[in-house]
Write a structure and sequence with these properties.
Length: 119
């Protein structure tokens, strides 16, 4: 039968992939707490979720593109600023504690969750 760690890995992968396909890269938000629950320290969980989500996001974008649901021109407008944000966020993550990162992550999730419910 399945080893407990393998089952967790399978469930995490399925949940993150399904969320990514459904929400458009939303799987990373789910991956972080799942990876932490599996024993990964906070900063490594954040970085590992990115490594998981990159190939999933590329595949999801391709599927969205093929179905006519991807506006590449619109996406390109955000890319330079997104890349600048990557360097800024990575620099900040190096300097803050894991506890602060967890609190910031929770606040961002709560803010956008409430904002989405209010729409």
């Amino acid at each position: 039968m399945w080893e407990n760690k393998s089952l967790k890995m399978i469930i995490t992968g399925l949940v993150c992939g399904a969320a990514n396909g459904l929400f458009g890269a939303g799987g990373g938000i789910l991956a972080v707490p799942m990876l932490e629950r599996d024993g990964l320290e906070t900063k490594k969980a954040h970085a590992t979720s990115l490594a998981i989500m990159l190939p999933l996001s590329i595949i999801s974008a391709f599927i969205y593109y093929k179905s006519g649901n991807l506006n590449i021109a619109e996406a390109m407008k955000y890319l330079p600023f997104g890349l600048a944000g990557v360097f800024l966020g990575s620099a900040i993550m190096k300097r803050i504690s894991a506890a602060t990162l967890k609190q910031l992550f929770a606040l961002v999730m709560m803010y956008f969750g409430v904002r989405m419910l209010m729409r």
